[in-house]
Amino acid sequence: MLNWFRNIRQAITTVASGMYVTLRYWLITYRQDRGTFTEIFEYPEKPVPVASRYRGFHRYDLTTCIACEACSKACPVDCIYIGKERVEGSKGFRVTTFTIDYTKCMFCALCVEPCPVDCIFMGATHDLSCYSRDGCIVDFSRVPLGVAWGRTSLNPTAVAQSKVITQPVHGGPNQ
């Protein structure tokens, strides 16, 4: 019977502490000096600041990739697809497609470490909103090099335009 009362007391204190945290955050929203999100960050014009070790959408350098598929083998959810073909008269391969399916990707950065030539990185882009699942599948061999390498943002417009192109933008280092 004593154990039953202890359990009741523990349940009441647990719920009370949870409600205290909820009440505290609820009351913070009514402070007068607290601005709205758009007043603080002005999102479309001024991007939201991210931490230096933020793992956003990938940056990929097609010019240094040797098509070893180490990144796709290391991916735990199998969201990286690499198409390659052997170059005539050479030992190397040519990357024909380098596709990442962001509907599967969990942004763990396990694909970055095994790359022997450091051609894939985690970028700071955090917004790739689109209206269909097809827009979340990005082929970095068809995206313009400045977008793929992260000099400009990986945006839905660039991804949509890359799906219209039938040939890769750049062939890789072994051409």
Give me some keywords for this one:
175 residues; alpha+beta; Alpha-Beta Plaits; 2 domains; two-stranded antiparallel ribbon; 5 helices; elongated
Tell me what the structure shows.
- The chain is α+β, with helices and mostly antiparallel strands and 175 residues long.
- The chain has two domains: 2-34; 58-162, Alpha-Beta Plaits, CATH 3.30.70.3270.
- The chain has five helices and five strands.
- The chain has helices spanning 2-28, 37-41, 70-74, 145-148, 156-162, and strands at residues 58-60, 80-86, 93-101, 120-122, 137-139.
- The strands form two sheets. The chain has a three-stranded antiparallel sheet with strand order 2-3-5, with no helix packed on it. Strands 1-4 form a two-stranded antiparallel ribbon.
- A hairpin with a 6-residue loop joins strand 2 and strand 3 (93-101).
- The protein is elongated, with a radius of gyration of 24 Å.
- It starts with a helix and ends in a 13-residue tail after the last helix.
Biggest sheet: strands side by side, in what order? 2-3-5
Number of strands: 5
CATH class categorisation of the largest domain: Alpha Beta
Overall morphology: elongated
Oligomer: single chain
Spans where pLDDT lies below 50 across 5 or more residues: none
* Distance from first to last alpha carbon: 80 Å
Quick summary of this structure?
The protein is of the alpha+beta class and 175 residues long. The chain has helices at residues 2-28, 37-41, 70-74, 145-148, 156-162; strands at residues 58-60, 80-86, 93-101, 120-122, 137-139.
